[in-house]
Amino acid sequence: MASRIANAAKGIRFSSSATAANPWLAERVAIKEHAGPAAETWRKVSIYVCIPAVIAASANAYNLWAKHQAHLEHERHEGHESVKYPYMRLRAKAFPWGDDSLFFNPEVNM
């Protein structure tokens, strides 16, 4: 028992060199040999496909955001009027903080 612990401390595993005699170890070695090329394939996919796709999606999102901001700025300068329809903003009882809802934004909401 003490020799197993000493060998484990040195980095030598017990009974791990006889792969032909142990079918479980032979299967593990085969899986490890197969996993190397598969892992390399997925590493290349991650680097050469996923990263450029994320960069392209980020650029697209930024362009859409910039167009939306330009449109909102145009609407602020244009000064469109909001129509107060009688069926909008019906209140049975006033809010404690005022007439508008808690999340009311006068620049965006009517």
From TrEMBL:
<dbReference type="GO" id="GO:0006123">
    <property type="term" value="P:mitochondrial electron transport, cytochrome c to oxygen"/>
</dbReference>
<keyword id="KW-0496">Mitochondrion</keyword>
<dbReference type="Pfam" id="PF02046">
    <property type="entry name" value="COX6A"/>
</dbReference>
<dbReference type="InterPro" id="IPR036418">
    <property type="entry name" value="Cyt_c_oxidase_su6a_sf"/>
</dbReference>
<dbReference type="GO" id="GO:0005743">
    <property type="term" value="C:mitochondrial inner membrane"/>
</dbReference>
<dbReference type="InterPro" id="IPR001349">
    <property type="entry name" value="Cyt_c_oxidase_su6a"/>
</dbReference>
<comment type="similarity">
    <text>Belongs to the cytochrome c oxidase subunit 6A family.</text>
</comment>
<keyword id="KW-0999">Mitochondrion inner membrane</keyword>
<protein>
    <submittedName>
        <fullName>Cytochrome c oxidase subunit 6A, mitochondrial</fullName>
    </submittedName>
</protein>
<dbReference type="GO" id="GO:0030234">
    <property type="term" value="F:enzyme regulator activity"/>
</dbReference>
<keyword id="KW-0472">Membrane</keyword>
<keyword id="KW-0809">Transit peptide</keyword>
